[in-house]
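Good morning,

Attaching, inline, the backbone tokens for the sequence recovery test we're adding to the shared suite. The designed sequence is right after.
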């Protein structure tokens, strides 16, 4: 804690400023370019607000207010988008931007001078002497969104600004029927048994219900639903006299709209600054990512705890993703209590030595189809202890970790068990239990039944952790001999001298010798089995065959099964998902391994810092201030999959943490 306090003081003394992401007209010169990037605000319940930097909905999952009525994944698209017009005298200008299914377009981006993301999204318009600024905020732990317009009328004519909200009131991913009715009563909208409250200082006018059908350009390219519908039943307007400046404020909420939009926006900005101070990073991109990391943390009502959402806009919370993301999202950012809440939630649900990969909803039971989550749970407890020296928490978790070791040694579900050589084998039937677990019908594009390399790296790491914890809590540890057996067997079974790297799998199939990124965790984990020479060779082989500035390829280009692009219908995408597609999160393990094999030298740190600079360009593209899930395998130019991914952010943050910690020693 003393080191953390020193970092905070250093941070404050330097007077560092937020990163401001500024986009000008050249960045949205066409409607297509203007929809390349989006913002993301979250509320800690699984709800969010996300639209493009021109304010349009380019995905069916875009929304001004995507509410979550049962945290973290009962999400409903409430306010889909806002239509905005400015009347100056007798002339009317459309300021909103949107593509429609019939080919029509609103092109308000032509009046947009700048989009700025600085802890809140800000749009700046200029129209014939009228300046208009729009800003959005979202309140923590409420399904509440605020919009604030500031209009400076430097014209000689009076002006009127109008906003028309379009609603869906449907489960995320679906759309309202054309017969769905939206009822307006005073400051309330009703539909399909749901209620949305709103408050404004503008004039509310009921209008005849009208319908829009949208074209979602960013869903079309992925083979998703290309059209969507929304309806409006009122508009909000404000009169802007010539030469004056006025504000229009609107709050939409599932709980309480009787709040001031200014306070919501400023409260959100203050909250994000507090996260930055708590994490206490010095490097600007690390500070920004520390705030982005918190956007994945959410309450979970079914377990009365906390969780980490895997990614926006598609994913919910999964055990494996949580355990990979948690060290960076919670531990290195100083959110220790959150980390403990999450780990306790998983500990309660341990079964047969396994951790849930999918938590229960309603009356459903958890799904345990993961071999890595339990071993990574142990790694999280270890990393938490290293950061806090919280022995009491280790004692609390120790019986759970004992059951995990026992389950893996004696055998548990999904074909997970220890073989006679001490190594872990896993997988059976059509169950894929590692992170390369996609299934296309009866096809497993990346079958990994056998002994996966990263799972056995995690297994050895877990045995070493338990050996340390046993002495810490005064328990007898019986498996020192097993640990040594695993080490010998691992080197013997996985090392490929001719390729100077590790097999991806021990299964007796051609998949064994494929060069994949999974081997990097055999170098980057806290406890590892290879000698220094072999570790260096693994790092160099991974760099030579798999490295890109935005992530590691999942398969080397030279392999006959390599897919260069991730695109098309779901089946086509799934066939490419782990067959060369670049994933951002393994890049963190690569950099940690590179620093390790180079002794954390000044030169190595300089190399990593230099290579990480390109991450800023990744954070400018897709979801601003975030890191995505994946890129194309051959030439990773545009983010794909989830535009914001928890383990991508968390793993890169761990690299920054190591660099700053080592520099401070």
């Amino acid at each position: 804690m003393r080191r953390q306090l020193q970092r905070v003081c250093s941070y404050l003394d330097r007077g560092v400023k937020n990163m401001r992401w500024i986009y000008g007209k050249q960045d949205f010169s066409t409607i297509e370019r203007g929809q390349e990037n989006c913002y993301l605000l979250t509320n800690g319940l699984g709800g969010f607000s996300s639209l493009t930097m021109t304010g349009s909905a380019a995905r069916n999952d875009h929304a001004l207010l995507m509410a979550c009525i049962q945290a973290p994944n009962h999400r409903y698209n409430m306010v889909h988008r806002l239509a905005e017009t400015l009347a100056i005298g007798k002339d009317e200008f459309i300021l909103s931007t949107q593509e429609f299914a019939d080919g029509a377009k609103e092109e308000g981006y032509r009046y947009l001078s700048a989009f700025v993301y600085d802890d809140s999204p800000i749009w700046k318009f200029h129209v014939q002497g009228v300046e208009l600024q729009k800003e959005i905020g979202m309140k923590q732990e409420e399904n509440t969104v605020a919009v604030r317009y500031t209009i400076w009328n430097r014209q000689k004519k009076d002006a009127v600004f109008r906003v028309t909200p379009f609603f869906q009131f449907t489960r995320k991913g679906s759309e309202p029927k054309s017969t769905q009715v939206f009822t307006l009563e005073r400051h309330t909208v009703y539909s399909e048994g749901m209620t949305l409250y709103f408050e404004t200082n503008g004039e509310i006018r009921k209008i005849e219900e009208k319908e829009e059908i949208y074209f979602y350009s960013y869903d079309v390219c992925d083979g998703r639903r290309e059209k969507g519908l929304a309806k409006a039943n009122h508009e909000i307007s404000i009169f802007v006299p010539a030469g004056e400046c006025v504000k229009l404020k609107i709050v939409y909420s599932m709980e309480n709209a009787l709040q001031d939009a200014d306070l919501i926006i400023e409260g959100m900005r203050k909250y994000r600054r507090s996260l930055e101070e708590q994490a206490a990073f010095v490097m600007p991109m690390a500070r920004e990512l520390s705030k982005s990391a918190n956007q994945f943390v959410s309450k979970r009502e079914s377990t009365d705890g906390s969780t980490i959402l895997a990614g926006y806009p598609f994913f919910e919370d999964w055990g494996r993703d949580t355990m990979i993301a948690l060290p960076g999202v919670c531990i290195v950012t100083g959110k220790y209590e959150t980390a403990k809440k999450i780990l306790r939630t998983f500990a309660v649900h341990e079964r047969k030595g396994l951790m849930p990969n999918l938590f229960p909803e309603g009356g459903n039971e958890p799904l345990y189809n993961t071999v890595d989550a339990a071993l990574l749970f142990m790694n999280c407890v270890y990393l938490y202890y290293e950061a806090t020296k919280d022995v009491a928490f280790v004692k609390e978790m120790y019986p759970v970790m004992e059951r995990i070791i026992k389950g893996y040694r004696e055998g548990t579900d999904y074909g997970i068990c220890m073989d006679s050589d001490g190594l872990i084998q896993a997988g059976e039937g059509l169950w894929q239990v590692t992170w390369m677990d996609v299934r296309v019908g009866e096809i497993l594009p990346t079958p990994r039944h056998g002994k996966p390399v990263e799972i056995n790296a995690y297994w050895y790491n877990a045995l070493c952790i338990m050996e340390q914890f046993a002495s810490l809590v005064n328990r007898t540890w019986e498996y020192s001999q097993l640990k040594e057996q695993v080490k010998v067997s691992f080197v013997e079974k996985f090392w490929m001298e001719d390729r100077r790297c590790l097999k991806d799998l021990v299964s007796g199939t051609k998949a064994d010798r494929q060069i994949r990124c999974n081997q990097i965790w055999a170098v980057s984990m806290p406890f590892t089995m290879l000698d220094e020479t072999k570790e260096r060779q693994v790092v160099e082989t991974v760099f030579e065959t798999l490295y890109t500035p935005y992530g590691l390829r999942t398969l080397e280009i030279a392999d006959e099964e390599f897919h260069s692009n991730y695109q098309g219908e779901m089946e086509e995408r799934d066939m490419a998902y782990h067959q060369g597609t670049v994933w951002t999160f393994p890049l963190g393990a690569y950099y940690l391994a590179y620093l390790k094999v180079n002794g954390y030298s000044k030169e190595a740190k300089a190399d990593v810092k230099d290579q990480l600079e390109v991450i800023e360009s990744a954070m400018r593209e897709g979801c601003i201030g975030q890191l995505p899930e994946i890129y194309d395998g051959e030439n990773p130019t545009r983010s794909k999959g989830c535009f914001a991914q928890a383990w991508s952010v968390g793993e890169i943050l761990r690299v920054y943490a190591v660099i700053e910690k080592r520099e401070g020693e």
